Amino acid sequence: MKELKVEWEKLIGTAAPNNSRAFLELRIAYRLQELTYGGPDRDTRRMLELLADEVEGHNRRKHQIADPRNPVAGTKLLRKWDGIEHTVTVLKDGFDWKGRRFKSLSAVAREITGTRWNGYRFFGLRERMQEGA
């Protein structure tokens, strides 16, 4: 255990907690992978922090865990379907179409077409994301 605690202090930079050997081994292994391959990106870290806050009972709303594919709130998405131009406004926690709120673009696309669509594809966002990648 002494070697694990020394390794912990070297890799993590704090005094090792008095946890089980298995915990120390797993956390040290994770830190080695993190140093070798890089840690989670900013969006993943943010989502994990919000989920941890939720589990711990902090007062944060789920809608704060926004899909990074969504355009900035206030953006207007335009789509012509069957000769009619449809405008969807991106909100902080969903979408507005004709004064109705939706949780997903797919739900809006289904209302417009009557069939199931990937909302990002229907509004042309998926193609733009792939072009930018």
Question: How do the helices and strands line up, and which of them pair or pack?
Answer:
Blueprint: H1 2-12, H2 21-37, H3 42-55, E1 76-81, E2 84-91, E3 94-97, E4 100-102, H4 105-113, H5 119-122, H6 125-132
Helix pairs in contact: 1-2
InterPro entries: DUF2924 (IPR021322)
Protein name: DUF2924 domain-containing protein
Pfam families: DUF2924
Brief write-up:
With 133 residues, the protein is of the alpha+beta class. It is 47% helix and 16% strand. The chain folds into 2 domains: 2-55, no CATH class; 76-132, no CATH class.
Q: What do these coordinates show?
A:
The chain has 133 residues and is of the alpha+beta class. It is built from 6 helices and 4 strands. It has a 4-stranded antiparallel sheet, covered by helices on one side. A hairpin with a 2-residue loop joins strand 3 and strand 4. Helix 1 runs parallel beside helix 2.
Write a concise keyword list for the protein shown above.
single chain; 2 domains; elongated
Question: What's the rounded overall pLDDT mean?
Answer: 83
The major sheet is characterized as: 4 strands, antiparallel
How many E-type strands?
4
Helix-strand string: HHHEEEEHHH
Secondary-structure content class: alpha+beta
- How much strand? 15-25%
C-alpha geometry? elongated
Rg from Cα: 22 Å
Give the low-confidence spans: none
- Distance from N terminus to C terminus (CA atoms, Å) equals 46 Å
